[in-house]
């Protein structure tokens, strides 16, 4: 009974670690920005991105579980040396995003308490350090992500109800966007990258390996955990989208283009809404700091003995470096945009590696991977690679134009 209870806690923790890793300051800013830009058509972006994310997530988590290997070790078995390349890309991307996450914690605390953003960022870094300094860091991480994830859903749902969004219009636009599907290519790639790009798709899978919940006998539990993680991210995205869509339809609502999410919450519920935004933004940042640090380090620990022997210390150093870079350099917007685009490219590469691995008996043994998941996985690889190339061509065209 005790083992089942512990397993349930870990499975929930893995799901919320993945979901809250995705629900960071960038997630909230992207949702707010795209909703005000393309309105109800953003519903189609959410629908497509969540379907693609779910397919990618199931493929990755199932292969990690049956192989009992982390992403970088699977990659090295597919092609020697590839794991080091992927680990480097994921770790660098995780560090860059963590600078933004620490900054998000500072912004959230600034809204709640009025303290300086850099002091708030330092507090956010200290909280992350305290979490990983604990002897029971893994179980504590599970509990923190579950509690903050649940609170975020409740608070965003409250604001969404207050704004009375046009749900019917959103449902129609989900399958028939008014601007056509070409107009949602870039937002869709950005959302997929933000939901399962880079380190995020591996966060929960690596947590399950650390807890020993692997093997074919645990596949049904792994699938449920992956489904819950994507489900939580989907619910938060939809609620946040509806809340901001409702504000855009409100008479006399003033939205600050430099801080769309915060001003939307303020317009929806006054000072209370603004404080709710601060808490949600800070909670999203705290959980993303934890997820980015934990998963980035987990990509290095099987490749470098020093990291494996001092995992918590290296994770703390990762958070300290992110915090110092934010405090002394400020939020590197250009770097975050660059890494955001990179995440869109990392996904088709890492997913392709996992799909090759799923049919390699040296990696998965006698396990027979679902042909449906395999085919759908390659469709996701092809489409995200195409969208990534189209986005780069469009951005280069703007620069040259």
TrEMBL record:
Segments crossing the lipid bilayer: 38-56, 77-99, 111-132, 144-161, 181-205, 226-247, 276-300, 312-329, 335-358, 370-393
Gene Ontology cellular component list: plasma membrane
Highest rank taxon of the organism: Bacteria
Entry keyword Transmembrane helix: yes
Entry-linked InterPro entries: NRAMP_fam (IPR001046)
Mode of membrane association: Multi-pass membrane protein
Subcellular locations according to the entry: Membrane
Keywords, sorted A to Z: Membrane, Transmembrane, Transmembrane helix
GO terms under biological process: iron ion transmembrane transport
Example of a GO MF term: cadmium ion transmembrane transporter activity
Database matches in PANTHER family: SOLUTE CARRIER PROTEIN FAMILY 11 MEMBER (PTHR11706), TRANSPORTER PROTEIN (PTHR11706:SF2)
Protein name, as recorded: Manganese transport protein MntH
Species the sequence originates in: Peptoniphilus porci
Lineage, highest ranks first: Bacteria, Bacillati, Bacillota, Tissierellia, Tissierellales
């Amino acid at each position: 009974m005790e083992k089942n209870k512990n397993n349930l806690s870990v499975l929930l923790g893995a799901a919320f670690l993945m979901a809250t890793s995705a629900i960071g300051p960038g997630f909230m800013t992207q949702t707010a920005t795209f909703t005000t830009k393309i309105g109800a058509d953003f519903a189609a972006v959410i629908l497509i991105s969540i379907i693609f994310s779910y397919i990618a997530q199931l493929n990755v988590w199932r292969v990690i579980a049956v192989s009992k290997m982390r992403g970088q070790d699977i990659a090295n078995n597919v092609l020697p040396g590839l794991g080091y390349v992927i680990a480097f890309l994921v770790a660098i991307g995780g560090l860059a995003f963590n600078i933004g996450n620490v900054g998000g914690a500072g912004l959230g605390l600034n809204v709640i308490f009025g303290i300086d953003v850099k002091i708030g960022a330092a507090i956010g870094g200290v909280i992350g350090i305290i979490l990983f300094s604990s002897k029971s860091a893994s179980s504590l991480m599970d509990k923190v992500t579950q509690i903050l994830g649940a609170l975020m859903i409740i608070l965003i749902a409250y604001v969404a109800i207050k704004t009375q969004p046009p749900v019917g219009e959103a449902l129609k636009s989900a399958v028939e966007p008014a601007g056509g599907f070409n107009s949602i290519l870039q937002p869709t790639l950005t959302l997929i990258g933000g939901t399962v790009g880079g380190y995020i798709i591996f966060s929960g899978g690596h947590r399950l390996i650390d807890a020993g919940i692997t093997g074919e006998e645990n596949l049904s539990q792994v699938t449920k955990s992956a489904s819950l993680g994507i489900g939580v991210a989907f619910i938060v995205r939809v609620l946040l989208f509806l809340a901001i869509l409702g504000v855009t339809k409100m008479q006399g609502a003033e939205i600050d283009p430099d801080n769309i999410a915060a001003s939307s919450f303020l317009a929806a519920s006054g000072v209370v809404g603004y404080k709710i935004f601060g808490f949600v933004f800070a909670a999203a940042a705290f959980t993303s700091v934890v997820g980015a640090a934990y998963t980035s380090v987990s990509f290095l620990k099987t490749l470098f003995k020093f990291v494996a022997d001092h995992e918590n210390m290296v994770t703390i150093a990762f958070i300290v470096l992110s915090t110092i870079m934010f405090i002394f350099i400020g939020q590197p917007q250009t770097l975050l945009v660059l890494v955001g685009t990179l995440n869109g490219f990392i996904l088709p590469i890492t997913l392709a590696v996992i799909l090759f691995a799923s049919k390699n008996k040296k990696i998965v043994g006698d396990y027979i991977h679902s042909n449906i998941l395999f085919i759908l996985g390659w469709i996701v690889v092809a489409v995200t690679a195409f969208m990534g190339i189209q986005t780069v061509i469009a951005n280069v065209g703007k620069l040259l134009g």
